[in-house]
Specification:
mainly beta, 4-stranded antiparallel beta sheet, 3-stranded antiparallel beta sheet, A-crystallin/Hsp20_dom, HSP20-like_chaperone
Length: about 140
């Protein structure tokens, strides 16, 4: 019996660009370059709700995280800044991260909630029937 926790990996309905590197070995050298500026997310579409989770440890959600929704797209932006000062030197590092995902049809952009707990950002919104029904367009015969 293993004492290690079991980790469940869900397949996202929104493809992750960094997953491309796993499927194309000749591009593997590019992963560290691009992966350092992307926010990896896990999303789940269940009855009536769409939930996105992002690992963003060590951030202050009031100052460092911005979430926007516009035209069927949700964008998460995060800014990280670290400073340390010793007797003979000081160091600082910073970086900005961004991730935009397309929302599923019927997502209610006015019903979005976001929570940050222990380094995990969870964004959820309700999903209903699409507002505009599908319209069938008749095709006329050219003869």
């Amino acid at each position: 019996m293993s004492l290690l926790p079991t980790r469940h990996q869900r397949h996202s309905i929104v493809p992750d660009v960094t997953d491309l590197f796993d499927s194309v070995p000749s591009l593997a050298w590019m992963r560290p370059i691009l992966d350092s500026r992307l926010i990896r997310v896990e999303d789940e579409l269940a009855e009536g709700s769409y939930v996105i989770r992002a690992e963003l440890p060590g951030l202050d959600p009031d100052k460092d995280i911005e979430i926007t929704v516009h035209d069927g797209r949700l964008t998460i932006k995060a800014q990280r800044e670290e400073r340390s000062q010793g007797k003979a030197r000081s160091e600082f590092s910073y970086g900005s991260f961004v991730r935009t995902v397309d929302l599923p049809q019927g997502a209610r952009e006015d019903d979005v909630e976001a929570h940050y707990d222990k380094g995990i950002l969870t964004v959820s919104l309700s999903v209903g029937e699409p507002e505009s029904p599908v319209h069938r367009i008749p095709v006329t015969n050219g003869s």
